[in-house]
Amino acid sequence: MNFARTKYRFRATAAAMAVITIAVIGACASGNILKWNQVDSAAMMKSDAGMQKLNTVRFETFGPDAEQLFGYFLYKDGIEVITGEGIPQKRLGKLTLREVMDDYARVVRERQFTSGSNLIVREVLRGDLVVGYTAHDINMDVMIWDITADKDAKVVLRLVYRDLRKKDGGDMRRNMHPAGR
User: Fold this and answer.
1) What is the pLDDT of residues 20-32, one digit of tens each?
2) 65 and 145 fall within a common domain
3) Vertex 27: Cα angle to 25 and 30 (nearest 5)
4) Which of 106, 113, 165, 178 could pair with 145 in a Cys bridge, judged by C-beta atoms 3.0 to 4.6 Å apart?
């Protein structure tokens, strides 16, 4: 047995593993999941916050299910929202919460879906400030990640969801990690 050759291979393998580990860690997007509070949608629609027009994106599940689920994210000006990973989405401009509820009813009716729930509305907090609202089907788990690079940079939020209809504990096509891994 050649100890010098074995020692060299061990060092080369260790160095390669270190490089791979650093690359994997560097590839992972850092971010913080934003906290949320569920709100009473009927009461909110009557309040000033519910009547405020906010930037709105509609997103939906995809895959082998006959009927897809819909969700909305309403967010304030000056925020960039990304989804990625092929999430079907449509930017709807500025809508109020009432207009979002009407759009949801219209889309479900147009597609002749028979399932679906009333939308669950949650306010999304960044620190102590409300930056937006999610409105989604009860069978979706929607999370908003803050992936803003610098403290003084424009706020960048990443929307991810998970389809909870599957009997095996959820649809892992929509991973909850901000990097989508």
Assistant:
1) 544 444 445 578 8
2) yes
3) 75
4) 178
